[in-house]
Amino acid sequence: MNKEQRFQKVAELWNANMPFNQLLGFEISRFDDTRSEISFHWHDKLIGNPMQKILHGGVTAAALDLAGGVVAAASIIANMEEASAQVIQENLSKLGTIDLRTDFLRPGRGEHFVASAHIIRSGSKVAVARMELHNEKNDHIAFGTGTYMVS
Amino acid sequence: MNKEQRFQKVAELWNANMPFNQLLGFEISRFDDTRSEISFHWHDKLIGNPMQKILHGGVTAAALDLAGGVVAAASIIANMEEASAQVIQENLSKLGTIDLRTDFLRPGRGEHFVASAHIIRSGSKVAVARMELHNEKNDHIAFGTGTYMVS
Amino acid sequence: MNKEQRFQKVAELWNANMPFNQLLGFEISRFDDTRSEISFHWHDKLIGNPMQKILHGGVTAAALDLAGGVVAAASIIANMEEASAQVIQENLSKLGTIDLRTDFLRPGRGEHFVASAHIIRSGSKVAVARMELHNEKNDHIAFGTGTYMVS
Amino acid sequence: MNKEQRFQKVAELWNANMPFNQLLGFEISRFDDTRSEISFHWHDKLIGNPMQKILHGGVTAAALDLAGGVVAAASIIANMEEASAQVIQENLSKLGTIDLRTDFLRPGRGEHFVASAHIIRSGSKVAVARMELHNEKNDHIAFGTGTYMVS
Questions:
Q1: Per the database record, which ranges form the Thioesterase domain (chains A, B, C, D) (predicted)?
Q2: Which chains touch A (3 or more CB pairs under 8 A)?
């Protein structure tokens, strides 16, 4: 498998096998080591504050955390030599979020949302990503910074 | 209504009317301005990583965010003179999370979880709370710091 | 005074009257509501770790905090009607950092450093800025996010 | 050297050889893996805002960062077998701050300050510490969370 095939393989696996992401309607819509994206649609079950009808802060944090985790995973995979699916899985098994900061900039209103991420520190043990959440009008709803264990 | 009655009233309202908290099985089990708590049970739908069977980071962040929001709400209500339900609602309508840091300390495993919060900065405009997530064995799973707009 | 004159006035006042910034050799080199900058030169007194000869983390945090505070101040001033020096001072007296996250991305080595900031949330009570520290080779040394009280 | 002797040795070395800490008057007053402390006295050169005569945010962040770094160093040393000064130095050479959150809770006023830290995550690669800054009246001035690389 070349790099793009590995990216595609892992994106498919994760989209099919992560219960909480499925519950929220999250889909990994771009899996790449330069920029990754998570897409989801508005649904009433995602409401935090019923009077204001805006996304729960936990939905925003979950989307940013996943986007950062995906770009960190892609940067691990990109640095691997050609590898079997099993070797990729073993390398990704060490991936985990160490800490996450979420800045809630504007009310979480909209019909369609995209959380995007890119890497700002790419180390052998730790990676740092910054993330943004936008709606279909390109309103900048939230900003995030996440530190990930990568080995 | 005295302070305890107001706390009880708002806890009941929030438990009955917040879709995302209901989706995740979150219950406000203590609503108090000195210490607030959110309780929830393990459920497979909360899994982030299917290979490790641990809570999704977004579940952890959502629980910490809610616990901090509840203790911030309680501190707003505690500082109010005797007030009608409507006045309480108006005051709480301004409540919102500005930013949230989540530290993922240990894998999110367990059967029952409690997120607790207390206030470390109580201002007229902004409150800061620190939060912890523990399981039924009292393992310290996560730590959080949240900044909340209170007026 | 027009906006640019007000910016210049405050930049001069702050550069002349902030003891800790002078101790570290910090200079406000750009005071603007779209992007602000702090400049400083390497000096051995700024060393944290003598074996590695890199900037102390506190120097990095101080530069990012100041850059964010300057762009938050500029956004306050930009929103004011034409105002006297005294009115400006009164408005800025409420400015303060609520919280600051600093990500240390690369070792703090170099001869000349610039911390830059711009606003990502501009509210009537709270502003959020993101900041970066670069050296003369444009290495990205640190990243920051700061929440500021603005009224 | 036993554990206490190793702690003492490193505390002496660091107090004597860290230029920025000396510039600010910081002293490691407790070097221990359960709780570490940094002490310093008020000095006008530490002023951030001359109108309010309070500590610069960078001083607060520097003290918290150092306190967290010291308790992380102590936890590395505590886990080592009996070791020579050189082996200790080699192990500590990998220590570094990955990220730091500082919450500024109250104005930094006082005559004498203590920053204290303890570990909330102790891993083989990464440690997380939480820190507090108090003055001589025990006012809680600031709170911090730091993530440190330990190997």
A1: 53-139
A2: B, C, D
